[in-house]
Amino acid sequence: MATMRRETVQAWLLVLPALLLLVAFTHWPAVATVLDSLFSTPRGSRPAHFVGLDNYAALMDDPVFWTALHNNAVYAAATIPASVILALAMALAVNTAIPGRPLLRMAYFTPTMLPMIAVANIWLFFFTPDYGLFDSIAAWFGLGRHNWLGDTATALPAMIAVAVWKEAGFFMIFYLAALQAMPPDLAEAANLEGSSRWNFFRRVTLPLLMPTTLFVLVNASINAFRLVDHVVVMTRGGPDNATTLLLYYIYETGFRFWDSSMAATLTVVLLALLGLLAWLQFGVLGKRVHYR
User: Could you tell me the residue range of the domain that residue 66 belongs to?
Assistant: First the structure.
């Protein structure tokens, strides 16, 4: 009994540093954010006072919030499936014996290694009217100039293209590792049975990739709601809030307008949305995940 108690104490002492960091930098900030959302923003000598759910009621009447929520929903609905499908396609391509495979893998993964600010500036040049890359190519075909980031119809799709280009190579690495971990005798048995490549991919490869797909989907969902760097550099939420996403609106509310309580309220809403999305992903896809 004493030995078991000593081992339990030793185990808790081993996890204590990580547990303290987790509480200090994850759990306590989340609880403090919820508490801050129930108070008003302190102004100078005027302290914060309890307002209950008034901040949430004011948020429901904020048109910019609904615009940012709609933009983020469109952004997530486009970037998540596009980046995951493209990552899987790239992993399947570089997992086969083709000439120049190492160079192709490096080319796919290179965007992931670039800093987000550098990526934003590179694509900012691509989208620049008149002398940017896209307008230069359009000029070869006799097409006119277009302000890609200054048009409400193309600003958000332009941001989506940047995100997919940046993230697909990162997710490809996980798919490639999962593909290389698959036993080769499965493909050999399928060939002996006369199974087509598509049937083998649908019946064998995809089910075995479900744990990786779930992991990639969760990360892609988080990335879809945490984008702020590209928005700050490329559009600052414009034109007419066409590229204002939730996290950028939180940043703007907290650090431009210095409304900390409303920023906390927006953060709670964002955390609730991410929690709901994670619950749906684990609830729906978790039942189809088969771990070996």
Answer: 50-288
Burial status of residue 148 (CB atoms within 10 A of its CB: 0-12, 13-18, 19 or more): buried
**Full-prediction pTM beyond 0.70?**
yes
Structure tokens, 29? 């900030």
Q: Tally the C-alpha atoms within 13 A of residue 43's C-alpha that lie toward its C-beta.
A: 4
- Round to whole Å and give the CA distance between 86 and 91: 9
List CB contacts of 264: < 8 A, sequence separation 6 or more. Answer: 33, 34, 36, 37, 55
Q: Is residue 24 part of a domain?
A: no
Compute the Cα dihedral for 79, 243, 72, 174 and give only its sign.
positive
- Asked whether residue 15 is domain-assigned, the answer is no
The model's pLDDT over 52-91, given as tens digits with 9 standing for 90+, comes to 899 999 999 999 999 999 999 999 999 999 999 999 999 9
Give dist(CA 167, CA 289) in Å, integer: 23
Tell me which residue has tokens 């670039």: 114
Nearest in space to 227 (alpha carbons), one of 240, 242, 241, 246: 246
Is residue 38 in a domain? no
DSSP 48-95: --B-TTHHHHHHHT-HHHHHHHHHHHHHHHHHHHHHHHHHHHHHHHHT
Q: Is residue 16 part of a domain?
A: no
CA within 13 Å, CB half, 17: 2
| 292, pLDDT greater than 70 | no
CATH code of the domain containing 138: 1.10.3720.10
Cβ-contact 134, 127 below 8 angstroms:
yes
Structural domains of the chain, count: 1
